[in-house]
Amino acid sequence: MNAEAVRERASALPTEPGVYQFRADGTTLYVGKAVDIRTRVRSYADPRSARIRRMVDRADEVDIAVTDTETQALLLEANLIKRHQPRYNVRLKDDKSYPMVQLTAHEAPRIEITRDPNTDPAKSRGKATPAATRGNGLASSRPNGSTGGRENGSTGAAATVFGPFTDKGRLETVVKAIRETYGLRGCSDHKYAGRDRPCLDYEMGLCTAPCTGEIGHESYAEDVAAVTRFFDGETGILADPLRRQMEAAAESENFERAAHLRDRLEAVEAIHGEGSAAVQSVGDERVVDVIGVAIRGAEATVARLRSEGGKLVERDRHTLEAPAADDPEAGGVPGVLAAFLVQYYAERRLPDALLLPERHGDDEVSAWLEGEGVAVRVPGAGREATLVELALKNARQNVGRRDECGLLAEALGLERASRLEGFDVSHAQGTAAVGSNVTFVDGSADKSGYRRKKLSDENDDYANMRRLLEWRARRAVEGRDERPDPDLLVIDGGKGQLEAAREALERVGWDVPAIGLAKADERVITADREYDWPTDAPQLHLLQRVRDESHRFAVQYHQTLRDEVSTVLDDVPGIGPETRKRLLRRFGSVENVRAASLEELQSVDGVGEKTAQVVQKRL
After folding, report:
1. Are the C-beta atoms of 107 and 35 separated by less than 8 Å?
2. β-pairing, 444-445 with 431-441?
3. Among residues 339, 292, 345, which one has the least CA distance to residue 320?
C-alpha cells in the first residue's frame, strides 16, 4: 500500500479504540492497538522506521476490530499477536493466548474455556478471528456478516465466544457457577452423542442432561440465552442466585459454604469490573516479579524471577523476536518489555509489584497495570536493584539459545526445531508405571506444556513407551490436546525405545519426527542412522536438557505414586489415621509432606516436635 492508499483506507475507519491488522495475501503482517483507530492507521502513511515502511509497502489491506475500552484493545492485540505471529511485531514465543468462553455450535451448546475458539460455521474445528466488544467490554464473536471487527461469516450456526479475559482462575470459578446454576453441559460432542443415561455431572448438579432428555431443548435454550445475557453484561442473572444462596447459608450458620459462595460471587462480579475484582494490595507486596531483558541482534531473552514473602521461589526465561534497538516503533528494551508484559500475563495472575530494568514507555500498558493494582518500579539501588541485576544476568546467559534450535534443525535436516517434546517412562519392577511428556520452546522448558500419565503396570520399557506415545499421538490426532504439534519428539532411550515410539506414531498416523538419546554414549539415534556429535555441540546440549528433564519429571511422578498413603505415612510411628488426613489436607500429597520443614510439620494439629522429626527421618 502506498501513502495515498493508507490515507484513503483510514478515512473510512472509526475514531474508537480497537486493534488493526496490516495484511498481505491473507497473512497478517502486523497487529497494533489504538485509542483512535482512524488517526493511528493514518499515521502509517508516513512510517517512522524502515521496518514499518517495508511492512506497509507489502500490505494490501487493513482489517480492524472495534473495542469498548483501551484495555480491551490491549488484550485483543496480545491475543492476535500470539495467534498469527506477525512478522513485524515483537512476539513472545510461548504459544499462549488469553482465555475465552465459548458456547459451541450445537443443538445443546457446550460451555467451555478455550484459547482457540471456533467461530467459523463452515468448519467443525475452525479458527476464530477478532471480535468486536459488546457494551460491557467483553468481546463477543458471532457470525452476522458485518465488518468492523466482528466475525465475518454466513448466517449458519457458529460458536458464540466471549472474551478475552486476563484471569483464568477467576474465569474457571465463574464457569463452574454458571454450570451449577443453569446446568449447561461441559462434555465433548463425542461423549454427548448416543447416551442412554446421564453422566456423573448430572448427579453432581453441574448439568441438566439434555443428552438423555432430562431437560427439553427449548428449556435448555432458555438457559443458554440467560448465560449469554450474563456475558453481555447482565450480571444479576448469575449474581442474584449466588447472593441468595450465600445469605441462606449464613442464616443456617453454614459459614464455610457461605464463605465459598461469597468468593464465587466476587469472581462473578469481577468479570464485569464490578465488586471486588482480584486486584492485589500494593501495600502488602507478597508477590513480586523481577524482569530482566537481554537483546542480541533480532533476538531478545526475558528472564523472570518471582519473589514471595521476600524469598525467590521461581525463575524462568522466554524468547522474543525483537526489532532493532533504533526502531522507534517497538525497538530496544522498552519495546520488548511492553510486548512481554501483556503477552506473558495472558493467563497468569499479575503480581503485587513488577521490578523492571527500565521504563517500558507504553501508556496503554501502564494504564492496564495501574488499573489492576500492580506497582511498577525501576529500582536504582538496594535489594530491589540487586534482584533486577540478577534477572539481567539470567537473561544474558540465555540470549542466543535459539541458535541451538537452528543448529539442531540443520543437523537433522528438519525445517525447524523450535518446539520439542521429551518422553520417558519410570517404574519399579513393573509397579507404579508412569510416563512423562515435557515441552521445550526455543531451547527453554515450557512447564505449562508438561503432561504425565499413569501406565499399565508392566515390567517392559518398550511396551510402556509404546503406550505413552500412542496416548500422546491420539490426543493430537483427535484434537484433544490444545498444544501445537511439536517439531521433534525426543525419546529417552536407544533403538528399542525409539522403535516402540515409532510403532505407536505409525499406528495412530501422527506424522512427527522422533529421535532417541540414550545416556550410555550420548548417541543420537534416528530411524535410519546414528549421530556421534562432539560433546560440546550446542544441538546435543539442547537434546540432553530435554532428555534429562523428561527423566526427572517421570521419576518425580513415579515417586509420588509409589508413596501411597497406605505404604508410607501408615508406617510412621505416631501417625494415626486422623493425623495422616490432616497432614495430607495441609500439604496435598506425600511428596509435599516430604519437602516440608519441621516448623511446617508442627503447624499441623497432632504433630509435635518428636513426631515431626520421625516423619522427616522416615520420608
Report:
1. no
2. antiparallel
3. 339
Q: What is the pLDDT of residue 298?
A: 67
β-pairing verdict for 488-492 and 451-454: unpaired
**Up-side HSE of residue 581: CA atoms within 13 Å toward CB?**
2
Burial 475-489 (b: 16+ CB within 10 A, else e): bbeeeebebeebbbb
- Give the number of other Cβ atoms within 10 Å of residue 532's Cβ: 10
Instruction: Kindly give the residue spans of alpha helices, DSSP state H, lying in 183-254.
Output: 189-192, 200-203, 217-231, 236-251
Q: What is the DSSP letter of 1?
A: -
The Cβ-side half-sphere exposure at 471, using a 13 Å CA radius, reads 18
Residues (pLDDT < 50) of the chain are 95, 119-156, 274-284, 325-326, 328, 564-567
3-class SS of residue 455: coil
> What's the confidence (pLDDT) of residue 551?
92
CA nearest neighbour of 497 among 518, 511, 479: 518
Burial degree of 389 (CB within 10 A; 0-12, 13-18, 19+): middle
C-alpha cell at 557: 511422578
Bridge-based pairing of strands 160-163 and 61-66 is unpaired
Cβ proximity of 153 and 145 under 8 Å: yes
Residue with cell 497432632: 606
Grid cell 482512524 is found at: 38
Nearest-angstrom CA–CA distance, 141 and 73:
15
At 36, the amino acid letter reads: D
**Phi, psi (5° rounding) for residue 215?**
-135, 140
Residue 191 C-alpha cell reads as: 461423549
Q: How far is 93 from 321, CA to CA, in rounded Å?
A: 8
Its sign, for the CA torsion 214, 219, 223, 228, is positive
Report how far residue 42's alpha carbon sits from residue 554's, in angstroms, rounded to the nearest whole number. 55
Query: Which residue matches cell numbers 459488546?
Result: 134
Is residue 488 within 8 A of residue 465, CB to CB? The reply is no
Distance, CA of 470 to CA of 509 (rounded, Å)? 10
Count CB neighbours of 402 within 10 A: 21
Q: Which residues contact 609 (CB under 8 A, 6 or more apart)?
A: 598, 602
In angstroms, rounded to a whole number, what is the distance separating the alpha carbons of residues 208 and 185?
7
Strand partners, 422: 438, 490
Q: Report pLDDT for 145.
A: 29
pLDDT reported for residue 465: 95
Q: Is the distance from CB of 76 to CB of 66 less than 8 angstroms?
A: no
Task: Quote the pLDDT of residue 492.
Answer: 94
How far CA 455 is from CA of 425, 432, 554, in Å, comes to 9, 8, 11
Specify the pLDDT at position 8: 92
pLDDT per position as a tens digit, 129-140: 333 333 333 344
What is the number of residues in the chain? 619
All cell numbers assigned to 311: 524469598
Q: Provide the whole-model pTM.
A: 0.41
Q: In the numeric block, which cell numbers belong to residue 515?
A: 529421535
Angle at 79 between CA 75 and CA 82, to 5 degrees: 140
Report DSSP state, residue 564: -
Please tell me the distance from the alpha carbon of residue 408 to that of residue 440, in angstroms, as a whole number: 13
Closest CA to 550 of 460, 434, 464, 430: 434
